[in-house]
């Protein structure tokens, strides 16, 4: 009986050497049974699509922001989300700028955060903003630490809108470290920045402008 079975049914060679394969032509392959990726019986199972090698960088959201040429130092929070803050006493300090916004060319520093004034620009808080050319600083700011603009190698103009320079306290030295050689501190025409000692070290950098100019 066993001999008869062997004579009538031939088991196909896995390598394809036996041509008598009709009897198992309808049997699904192992790949088809398990669903594993690969090829079998002329059927190709595609691989999952590959992710792009290049990182997708989203453009900086701009929205409806104040025209820099019309800004007069009034409270402004157009760029509030660009920065990081620290609460000290009853006011906030700017302590850094988020990585995704370091390619800005102009910026108005925000005035308030969580309902409190932002009064201080800390050391290295704009570090890495190598394309930044102009900074606009409203009248809520009172203290500018050493190296506040360090790393802003393209920075050409810092606009201050406070008319009484004695209300502001810049670092006695090093405020402009790491900026452009042609840097200017722009103050309103008629502003009083030279009657006290606070800005005496930076008088050579002053440039006057008319509000709304």
Count of β-strands: 13
| Global shape | globular
Q: What is the CA-based Rg, rounded?
A: 35 Å
Order of helices and strands: HHEEEEEEEEEEEEE
Mean pLDDT: 80
CATH architecture of the largest domain, by name, is 3-Layer(aba) Sandwich
Classify the helix fraction into a percent range.
under 10%
What summary fits the major beta sheet?
A: 6 strands, mixed
Structural class: mainly beta
Portion of residues in beta strands equals 15-25%
Q: Identify the CATH class of the largest domain.
A: Alpha Beta
For the termini, the CA-CA separation is 108 Å
Question: How many domains make up the 3D coordinates?
Answer: 2
Q: How many H/I helices?
A: 2
CATH topology of the largest domain: Rossmann fold
Low-confidence stretches: 1-9, 14-18, 20-41, 48-62
Explain this structure.
This protein is globular. It folds into two domains: 2-44, no CATH class; 68-209, Rossmann fold. The chain starts with a helix and ends with a strand. It contains two helices and 13 strands; from the N terminus they run H-H-E-E-E-E-E-E-E-E-E-E-E-E-E. It has 213 residues and is mainly beta. Helices cover 6% and strands 23% of the residues. The protein has helices at 2-8, 30-34, and strands at 39-40, 43-44, 83-88, 91-97, 106-108, 112-113, 116-121, 134-137, 143-144, 157-160, 169-170, 184-188, 206-209.
């Amino acid at each position: 009986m066993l001999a008869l079975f062997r004579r009538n049914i031939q088991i196909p060679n896995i390598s394809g050497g036996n041509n008598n394969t009709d009897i198992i032509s309808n049997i699904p392959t192992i790949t088809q049974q398990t669903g594993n990726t690969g090829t079998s019986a002329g059927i190709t199972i595609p691989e999952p699509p590959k992710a792009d090698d290049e990182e997708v960088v989203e453009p900086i959201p701009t929205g409806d922001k104040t025209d820099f040429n019309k800004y007069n130092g009034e409270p402004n929070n157009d760029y509030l989300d660009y920065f990081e803050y620290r609460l000290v006493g009853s006011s906030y300090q700017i302590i850094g700028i988020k990585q995704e916004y370091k390619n800005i060319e102009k910026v108005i520093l925000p005035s308030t955060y969580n309902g409190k004034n932002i009064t201080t620009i800390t050391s290295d808080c704009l570090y890495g903003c190598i394309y930044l050319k102009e900074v606009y600083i409203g009248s809520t700011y009172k203290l500018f630490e050493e190296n506040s603009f360090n790393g802003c190698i393209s920075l050409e103009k810092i606009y201050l809108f406070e008319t009484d320079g004695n209300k502001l306290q810049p670092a006695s030295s090093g405020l402009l470290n790491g900026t452009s050689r042609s840097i200017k501190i722009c103050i309103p025409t008629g502003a009083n920045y030279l009657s006290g000692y606070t800005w005496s070290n930076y008088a050579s950098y002053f440039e006057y402008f008319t509000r709304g100019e």
